[in-house]
Amino acid sequence: MHVAWRFLLRLLPMHASPPQHDRHAIKPRILTGDTPTHTGLHLGHWVGSLENRVRLQDEFDCYFLIANVHAFTTLADKPEQIRANTLGIVKDWIAVGMDPERSTFVLQSEVPAIAELTFLFAMLLPFNKVMRNPTLKTEIDSKGLGDTYSFGFPMYAVGQCADILVFRPELVPVGEDQEAHIEMCRDVAMKFNQMYCGVGNRVPQEGHVAAGGVFPIPKAKIGRVARLAGLDGVNKMSKSLGNAIFLYDSAKDVQKKINKITVVAEESTGLVAQSHVLLQYCDAFLSRERAEAIRADYAEGKNVMHGHIKAELGEAINALLEPMRARREALETAEGEARVLEIIRSGIKRANVVAEETLAMSKRSMKLDFAERRISY
């Protein structure tokens, strides 16, 4: 075994997992995921969703979706890049502590039931409602798409409903900006259950499955920090805005970025605002007691050495990121690449068992069950 790969195995969390066939029976299910991009993941992703995923792996039956088909909405002319990004996001997940032995990594393009359900769900959503989705509108604006986006771009909002519901989860860990997608997903699940499964419109959401519905009505689970501001202190941390600290930035780069945070007192009070981005980062990455003490010093107008706070913050963030960097580096070998493909293929098999079951249940409810099919890989 390659030395780097042995090192990775030592770093990965080693928890006993239940037998594969028992997983769905003994744990409630979670579904969440990411669209693969070349810039990778940042601290906003960590506090908004990733740390939740890592923590919930023992408590829930977790399905983590690699939305490589959704990547084609903006990169349709770059299939090689999408493939590389797809392998990269799996490496990122392993590096942060998501464990394919305790969870299922789902490659979207290899789960045919998702595409079928996307088409069927599109019949349940008014076009105007899809286009009013605030997350969709934000992405069109932030990516400067104007009126040039493809027909498939708004379809991905419908596709996200299928991504989630095909695994019939109870919870969807997401960042605050994705909550609108979950609301649309909940609407689709309720409408489907009422229209095709005979669930009454007065049945409470938590009672839909017991009343005969195919789909649980999933709830969003927002991360510990709902919205982490970027280094500019104005916008949400974002790779496209250049205000992010990435999980694989070097220790030196992390400290440089933090040092660039501008600390300015408010004109009206002469004090640094309690909402200042530096204090937000203290809350997110220092101990609760230490963050509260720093806030109190600023609130009392003490002569706080901003540089000392930034150095302390940089040290804490680098302590968090260092094992992630080590695990990521260990995967950048031929053996690591082969292991990533093995993880993807194993996840495909496990995911399709659940997805095909959901599709069969859905088509039966819609009177489309004319034949039985099996998918094998």
Description:
By secondary structure, this protein is mainly α. The protein folds into two domains: 3-226 and 334-365, HUPs (Rossmann fold), CATH 3.40.50; 251-328, Tyrosyl-Transfer RNA Synthetase (Orthogonal Bundle). The chain is 51% helix and 7% strand. The protein has 15 helices and five strands. It has helices at 3-11, 23-26, 43-56, 72-75, 79-96, 112-122, 127-131, 134-142, 152-165, 179-196, 251-259, 277-285, 288-299, 306-330, 334-365; strands at residues 29-34, 61-66, 103-107, 171-174, 219-222. It has a three-stranded parallel β-sheet. Strands 4-5 form a two-stranded parallel ribbon. The longest helix is centred in the last third of the chain and has 32 residues, at 334-365. The radius of gyration is 22 Å and the shape is globular. 38% of the residues are buried. Mean pLDDT is 88; it is low at 1-24.
Detail the topology: elements first, then pairings.
Elements: H1 3-11, H2 23-26, E1 29-34, H3 43-56, E2 61-66, H4 72-75, H5 79-96, E3 103-107, H6 112-122, H7 127-131, H8 134-142, H9 152-165, E4 171-174, H10 179-196, E5 219-222, H11 251-259, H12 277-285, H13 288-299, H14 306-330, H15 334-365
Parallel strand pairs: 1-2, 2-3, 4-5
Helix pairs in contact: 1-14, 5-14, 6-9, 6-15, 9-10, 11-14, 12-14
